[in-house]
Every structure is written in C-alpha cells, then in structure tokens.
Amino acid sequence: MTTTYGPLSIWAVIVAGGLATFAIRLSFIHLFGRVDEVPPWLERALVYVPAAVLAALVAPSFAPASATVSAVLTPELLGGLAAVLAAWYTEDVLWTVAAGMAGLHLARFLL
Amino acid sequence: MDSRLPSDLRDGVRDTLPLLLGIVPFALVAGVAGVEAGLTPLQTVGLSVVVFAGASQLAAIELLGDDAALGVVVLTVVVINLRMLMYSASIAPYFRHLSTRVRAGCAYVLTDQAYALALARYAGDGADADLDADGGTRRPYYYLGVAVTLWVVWQAGTVTGVVFGAAVPESWQLGFAVPLVFLALLVPAVSDGASLVAAVTGAGVAVLGAGLPFNAGLILGAVVGVGGGLLAERRGLTDRGSGAEEGHR
User: Fold this and answer.
1) Interchain proximity A79–B180, CB inside 8 Å
2) Does the distance separating the beta carbons of B218 and A57 come in below 8 Å?
3) Which residue ranges traverse the bilayer (chain B) (predicted)?
C-alpha cells in the first residue's frame, strides 16, 4: 500500500502529470482560431473515457482473490456496495464516502 | 464599467458555495490518501497545486502506493484529464480577447465545475453581447470567481487532509476512501446503456489483467472499455445516437 519510490521519482510524476494536464487545459484556449474544434471522433471517444477509466481503476480494489463465497464477501466489497447504493441515490461524494466507510467498518465488526 | 467587475466576481464565488459540499470531502480524501500511500505532506500538497485535478490526483496516489510503473501513472493522469480538451475547446471563444498570460491563468484553474458554471452563465447571456461588450475584457471575472474559489478550497482541504491523515490510526482504513470517491464519480458517469457497457468492459478487462506487468490491465481496460462504449453506441444503446442527433450525422 505504501510507495517505495524515492522523492525524485514522485516529483517527476507530479511535474510531468501537471505539465501534461496544463497542456490539455490550455490547448484550445491557446490555439483558438487555428484549430476550431475537437475532432468529432475524439469527442465521441472522450464521452466513454470517464466510465471506462474509473471502472478499470476501481474494479481491482473490489475484485475477490478467489471465487468461494467466504472470500467474495469481504468488508471491502460490502463497503463498496454500500457506496454504490449511496452514489446511486445521492450522486454526492460526501454521502458515498460516508456510506462506504460505514459499510466497511460495520462489515469488519460483523464478519 | 468598474462596478461590473466585483459583481461578476462575487456572483462566481456565490454560485460556487453549494458545490463545496462535494469538493471539501474530495479534497480531504486527496490529502489523507497521499499520506497513506507514502507521499510526504509536501509531495501531497504539491500534487494538488501542480496537477489540480481531483480524480487524476487520486489515481496517481493509488498507483504510486501500489508501486505502479511511473510512465503508467503519468499516462493515467493524462487519460483521466483528457476530457478537459472538450472544456478547453468549448470555453475558448469567451477567452479569445484576453492576453496570453491571462489565458494561461484561466487554463490552469479549468475544472469540471468552473467550466460547467461559467458556460451556463455565458451561454445564458446572449451570444453577441458575450464576446464583444467591452471588448470582452470582463468575461473571465465570473469564471475566475468560480475557479479561484475552488482552487483555494481544494488546497485548504488537501492540507487539512494531510494533517488529519497523519494523525489518524491505521485501523480506521481511511485509504479505502480512494476507491469510494472513484465509485462516487463512476456511478453518475454511467448514464446510459453504452456507458454501462464501457464501464463493465473496462472493469472486466482490468480485473482479468490485474497481474500483467506495467499495469497493462488498467490501460487495456480503459482502451477496451472506450471501444466497448463506442461499439454499443453504434448498436443503438444510447439516447445520444437516436432522434435529433441522428439527423445531422
């Protein structure tokens, strides 16, 4: 869970990620007049980026190590289910995190 | 027109306040998670200042905590923030008259929320008045009212999270808040059949590829997920593909 990377590697990631993000943000604001629009194919693909990337990021944190019932019902999975329900009904980060943490600790206490 | 300047700015700040309920916990998590993943307080706050994009910060923190390949961490940040290309293109006309330096500043603080609020206001103003009144010089004040408020609150929240995270015992498992925030962002992003296909495909491929080197599972999941979404859209599993849009395609 804890990184073994040294400070130089971490700062390199911060600076590279920050510069790239700034370039994305500045792109059309700077170029406007020369490039008018995001190409349509890219715009259509970008619609699905949040769903695909967030799901790919989050899924391994909840995936069970094996397929037996006792291994599937982890506190993490139950907390995650509570969070999904809260996200579904409230669409609010605060309630989602609160429900997920409550679910995790309740399940740890009960299981 | 001096009197317009502070009122536009003030409107921006005021309209941002309700959003802070969602931003503050998100920023706290970014601070706590950084410390839990083994980043120093300075690195965690530095990430917030330099990158200033919540979901991508959390992804970077999570991947660094797992000792993912450094290139993959940066690539993931880029992919998560690619949506800002659309914001940049869409808001660019309103910043056209500004100096290069001011435009760069406006770009640095561009976020989902600042884009959404500013565009809603600008679009409601009536098209011509928007761009040409006062040579467009007062355009960014509302935007900056929103964006800078978000920036200040985000940094303060991250610092608070860092301090809090360092003081809280391990058994609270605060690091678990990271995937929870992703879930909070993921659920509203799944708005129709095609985006559901994108999410399920992305998740499935990422889980199957979890053991691959260089976090190829994550990258493959993202790519195959986007492809799945496009394919599903083509097969009509979306509201966007039907009706008015279909006509002019």
Assistant:
1) yes
2) yes
3) 16-35, 68-89, 141-168, 180-208, 214-232
Q: What is the pLDDT of residues B37-95, one digit of tens each?
A: 999 999 999 999 999 999 999 999 999 999 999 999 999 999 999 989 888 988 888 88
Buried b / exposed e over B114-129, threshold 16 CB at 10 Å, is bbebbeebbeeeeeee
**ipTM, two decimals:** 0.87
Q: Which of B110, B182, B200, B201 to mutate to test the interface with A (most CBs of A within 10 A)?
A: B182
pLDDT tens, B171-187? 888 889 889 988 998 99
- Phi (first) and psi of residue A67, to 5 degrees: -95, 10
- Give me the residue from A11, A48, A92 closest to B225, CB to CB: A48
State which amino acid sits at residue B196: L
Task: Annotate A1-30 with three-state secondary structure.
Answer: CCCCCCHHHHHHHHHHHHHHHHHHHHHHHH
Contacts (Cβ under 8 Å, ≥6 apart) of B197: B228, B229, B231, B232, B237
- Is B84 at the interface with chain A, CB within 8 A? yes
B76, A27: Cβ pair inside 8 Å? Answer: no
Contact A29 B92 (CB under 8 A): yes
Instruction: Report CA B134 to chain centroid distance, whole Å.
Output: 31
